[in-house]
Amino acid sequence: MTALYLHETIDIVGQGAWPYMRHTLQASGNETNRFTLQGTWYVMGITGRWPQVINIWDVPGGWQGWADSVDRLNLKRRNNIELTQWWDEAYTSRTGGFDRLLAGAPLSPTTDDLVAAGVRGSLFLHEISSVRPGTAPAHLAAMAETQVPLMAEYGFTATGLYETLMTDTEVISVWAGNVQAHTNLLRAEYGARHGPAGGDARLAAWRRTAREFVTTWRAELMTPCPGIRIGPPDQQESDASSESDS
């Protein structure tokens, strides 16, 4: 069965990111249109547009589950009192957003896979790639073969390799790691482009491979809301070395 996900970019009011994420974490059933939350993250303003929150939801039941969700949100939406009440409260912390329907690539782990494997991150990398029309499946296959094992060496686990549906020009990937993993990766990528000191030529080679499919690419860091299934169980530092390196 094809694994489907709803990806939400939420525009936040002022300092409302944490109240909104906690509100999202507590939702269930009709409040969420029966989607199941994989995670909710605050986009770190030092790396992306702010204030924003990213939510990723599992769509239970695959294509039939998606059809049921669309039906509930179409003409029947005005009768969904629980969802309307939840949205009314959520709008105290948000102004709107942008949603995407995603399909997991063949080698992408599902949320249940991640939980079973004990995958947890205290810092997440969120990548959005624009690809040449029709090349998303080939790019995702290349990512699974080359980028996933390479990123693992730097302490990042792929939590999702996604094709954006209802368009044929976008791929989204999400990676679980920590502050030191991010710093080490960024240093090695920069070194590979600008000189041999501290660089990893394999990272530069991967970026050349990606350009066979990708027209533009950007990444941003996300802070997980403690309590999500693939995040930290409570508020904590990502690792001890992040303090001494600051």
CATH topology descriptor of the largest domain: Alpha-Beta Plaits
Task: Tally the structural domains.
Answer: 2
- CATH architectural category of the largest domain: 2-Layer Sandwich
Query: Biggest β-sheet: count, sense, barrel?
Result: 8 strands, antiparallel, barrel
**What is the number of E strands?**
8
Overall pLDDT level = 92
How would you characterize this protein structure?
- α6 packs across α7 (201-210).
- The protein folds into two domains: 1-104, Alpha-Beta Plaits (2-Layer Sandwich); 105-226, 2-Layer Sandwich (Alpha-Beta Plaits).
- With 246 residues, the protein is α+β, with helices and mostly antiparallel strands.
- It has helices spanning 17-25, 62-73, 81-90, 111-117, 136-153, 179-194, 201-210, 241-245, and strands at residues 4-12, 36-43, 52-58, 94-104, 123-131, 157-164, 170-177, 214-224.
- The longest helix has 18 residues, at 136-153.
- A hairpin with an 8-residue loop joins β2 (36-43) and β3 (52-58).
- Strands 1-3-2-8-5-7-6-4 form an eight-stranded antiparallel barrel, surrounded by four helices.
- Residues 237-246 have low confidence and may be disordered.
Question: Care to give the gist of this entry?
Answer:
With 246 residues, the protein is of the alpha+beta class. It is 35% helix and 29% strand. It has 8 helices and 8 strands.
